[in-house]
Design brief:
The protein has 125 residues and is α+β, with helices and mostly antiparallel strands. It has helices spanning 2-5, 7-22, 40-61, 93-98, 103-114, and strands spanning 25-30, 65-73, 76-83. It contains five helices and three strands; from the N terminus they run ααβαββαα.
Length: 125
Amino acid sequence: MLDDFGLVTALRLVAKDFEKRQGIATRIVCTEGIPADLPGDSEIALYRISQEALANIAKHAHATAVEINLSRQNASLELRIHDNGQGIERNNMAEMHAEGHGFGLLGMRERTELLGGSFRRRQRA
């Protein structure tokens, strides 16, 4: 899909499919200036991170809406995925790993850091 359509179109297709399968309203916002010729490893990582985030939302968040934002920030790209679900309590992460859960977040972090990026997971206030 990435080879045929590029990252932005591939993300739009994934979001549309997710919305159809899960019944969760999904919006994607991509700003102008997203390069069409991203290195393959960057495209794959951003695509896989998006897929994993959506899978986690479907499994755990009890969300009714998701927004995926891809924007250009100077020479970098920023991917933000936000949902209106219940979230994860910070003190439960160690328990989750001990029970064999939470590795999707770890994988997203690793993919991001391999590209020289930073990964943040934020809780609602």
